[in-house]
């Protein structure tokens, strides 16, 4: 099989390059505005920006619990210019180093404190999220198929609310609809009730929509059990951790109307063991899912369906490479054990599984359609 070159960050003006040279400085500024970091932390964050935009990959200088596994993951990158590393490695390593600088792993007052909590909390409590959650009151007025479609569309587009992406100059804010797949295609994956694994992406509004989807999977009998996979620690600004699951769920359950009823059902399903939450270390690894460890692979082998949410998970699932956009999704995920669905807003360069006419039409437009966040897809493979 021809393997396309991986997507990098070294070409000036490329999306990956702009993420490091434009998005990350703004994100660091916002982090320093949100927290009263002392001079050491602020100097460390400035040094990280310099290293990741001008320097060579330096080893981690902390003794965190994941130090050894990161030493293995980064071993063949150390000493190389960041500009010569892959986008996937570079950004994952960037966020891991950022946590070391803010003291997430060090003994002391900031140990275990998610530096992105203020941003996540602001998004969970903003007007847009409130409006989305209020709209759940429409669900009981829909028939079964309409409710199925509405819940999947909300889960797909909930991925637009991604705080790292919102710092991007590409972000258009509009939604131009699905450019591949459909809610009906998604639901056709489900047959006899089984274990459904949902690999979540962002916290706040996206996670709320994911919990609504989880509720629908259980309520309609498509899932006998749901495993919700989240990140073991803070990652890519918005990514959901177990703490975020509790915060979003408590917020949902505290609302009036359908949102509160769904929140209560999800809380009860957790108590009954019908929903499990997992946070495997590999979900913060700078690796593609084709390289996942055996224990995680065994989990997915047991799944009736695995659902991947969001852009970064999609990149890791199909391979963060300059694939032809018409490469069949089934080929790109042939490594994956079992039926899989990807619900994703396009916010980075990689794309597969698109119809040739759709690609021609998008390429003929003058918009950078791969990175505006205006387009979304639902991909499935049995
Ligand atoms: O995975 P998500 O939250 O949907 O998107 C993550 C993201 O914002 O970060 C990466 C670049 O910074 C890209 O994958 C994408 O733009």
Automatic annotation (TrEMBL):
Cofactor: Mn(2+)
GO molecular function, one term: metal ion binding
Membrane-spanning ranges: none
Reactions catalysed, as given in the entry: beta-D-fructose 6-phosphate = dihydroxyacetone + D-glyceraldehyde 3-phosphate; beta-D-fructose 1-phosphate + H2O = D-fructose + phosphate
Protein keywords: Hydrolase, Manganese, Metal-binding
Family: Belongs to the damage-control phosphatase family. Sugar phosphate phosphatase III subfamily.
Stated name of the protein: Uncharacterized protein DUF89
